[in-house]
């Protein structure tokens, strides 16, 4: 003999207010929890999509990011002459030695933020064909002109076409805006690498170097050749998408840790709310529990009835929280990337894994909130329960 779901549903109906309050509290916590996971996922997806699988990015070993890496001009020439690198129609290797730095721009009259500044070569669009100029024109090679990523042009003052950005003691006009498909490049400014090197008196030393392989399946062979050359012992090649994905780890961990701390505090309140609700439900239904026991229902049936009731409330709240959080996918936010010390704009990203994790999280609150009251209900004796009937 089992207590039916119809009985549990009737209890929800009879206790609309307390059920609504409990479900609303858990919904808020699940919303915050899901939003935090979506932020961390958004950072990782944004940076992962920044690179391509057939590109290899070379940086100095032990460097924390592109800004702290340095490759001298002689090493650039050695890498450019390596086999397995794709070439243009006229036989030039498709490589881009890139100095990367940070400059300041105003987001508003009172708020200044860091922006990544990247020097690129004429082969950059062969390396990254996914990037398109959506307004204005390409820079003239050999001129002090810059392109602005779509996110920079949208969010920062002085980064529109026709504006001039001051850095390295000169004014650099913005001549075009490019779209990188929501990747990290959208949060950068690009200029002629040679002009940037000259402006900052860096000689021929760049930060990193990106090369396109003839075939992405030949990466391991390229890596083996690279490591066997003693001239390159202080440098490390990585698949570009992998490199940028690793760059997201510190920021994603920070967001997850901070968000988890806030969520734990909220979840304690929500769990206590569910606990109080279920204890009140047991107290109000003492006679009802006694009647069920008198009709032949076992203690385990009563226990599971209350547990299922608590878990169903948590499940409803979890689904509601996930639905609310899914609306965040239409919004973009920006934060400081710890690896580049510059602004990174990204979107909230909802994945199946986040949905599953959020549901498990909500059910755990329902379990914790319903376990003790359920034991209390199951332990009530028939005589004591019916005494006040």
Protein model, in words:
This protein is an alpha+beta fold and 389 residues long. It folds into 2 domains: 5-48 and 249-386, no CATH class; 62-233, no CATH class. Helix content is 49%, strand content 20%. It contains 13 helices and 13 strands. It has helices spanning 5-14, 16-48, 73-80, 124-127, 150-155, 193-199, 219-228, 240-247, 249-284, 286-294, 299-326, 352-379, 382-386, and strands at residues 55-60, 95-98, 100-108, 111-120, 132-136, 146-149, 164-167, 170-179, 188-192, 208-212, 235-239, 332-337, 342-347. Strands 3, 4, 5, 6, 7, 8 and 9 form a 7-stranded mixed beta sheet that branches. Strands 2-10-1-11 form a 4-stranded antiparallel beta sheet. A hairpin with a 4-residue loop joins β12 (332-337) and β13 (342-347). α2 (16-48) crosses α8 and α11 (299-326) runs antiparallel to α12. The protein is elongated. It starts with a helix and ends with a helix. 41% of the residues are buried. The model has no long low-confidence stretch (mean pLDDT 83).
Features:
2 domains; 389 residues; four-stranded antiparallel beta sheet; alpha+beta; seven-stranded mixed beta sheet; 20% strand; elongated; 49% helix
């Amino acid at each position: 003999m089992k207590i039916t779901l119809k009985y549990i549903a009737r209890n929800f109906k009879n206790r609309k207010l307390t059920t609504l309050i409990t479900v609303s509290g858990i919904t808020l916590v699940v919303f915050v929890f899901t939003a935090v996971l979506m932020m961390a996922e958004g950072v990782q997806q944004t940076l992962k999509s920044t690179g391509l699988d057939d590109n290899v990015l070379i940086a100095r070993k032990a460097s924390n990011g592109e800004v702290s890496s340095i490759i001298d001009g002689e090493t650039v020439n050695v890498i450019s002459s390596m086999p397995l690198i794709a070439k243009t129609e006229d036989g030039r290797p498709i490589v881009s030695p890139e100095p990367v730095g940070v400059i300041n721009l105003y987001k508003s009259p009172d708020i200044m933020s860091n922006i990544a500044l990247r020097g690129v070569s004429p082969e950059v669009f062969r390396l990254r064909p996914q990037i398109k100029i959506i307004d204005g024109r390409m820079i003239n090679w050999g001129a002090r002109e810059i392109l602005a990523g779509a996110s920079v042009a949208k969010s920062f003052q002085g980064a529109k076409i026709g504006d001039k950005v001051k850095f390295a003691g000169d004014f650099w006009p913005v001549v075009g805006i490019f779209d990188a498909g929501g990747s990290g490049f959208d949060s950068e400014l690009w200029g002629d690498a040679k002009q940037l090197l000259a402006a900052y008196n860096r000689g021929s030393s760049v930060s990193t170097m990106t090369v396109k392989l003839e075939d992405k399946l030949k990466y391991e062979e390229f890596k083996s050749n690279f490591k066997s050359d003693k001239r390159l012992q202080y440098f490390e090649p990585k698949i570009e998408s992998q490199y940028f994905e690793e760059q997201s780890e510190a920021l994603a961990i920070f967001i997850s840790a901070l968000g988890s701390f806030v969520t734990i505090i909220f979840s304690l309140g929500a769990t206590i709310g569910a606990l109080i609700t279920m204890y009140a439900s047991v107290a109000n239904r003492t006679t009802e529990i006694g009647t069920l026991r008198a009709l032949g229902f076992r203690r385990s049936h009563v226990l599971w009835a209350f547990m299922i009731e608590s878990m169903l409330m948590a499940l409803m709240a979890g689904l509601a929280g996930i639905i609310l959080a899914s609306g965040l996918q239409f919004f973009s936010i920006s934060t400081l990337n710890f690896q580049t010390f510059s602004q990174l704009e990204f979107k909230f990203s909802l994945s199946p894994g986040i949905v599953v994790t959020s549901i498990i999280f909500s059910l755990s609150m329902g379990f914790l909130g319903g376990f003790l009251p359920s034991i209390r209900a199951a332990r009530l004796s028939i005589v004591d329960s019916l005494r006040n009937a």
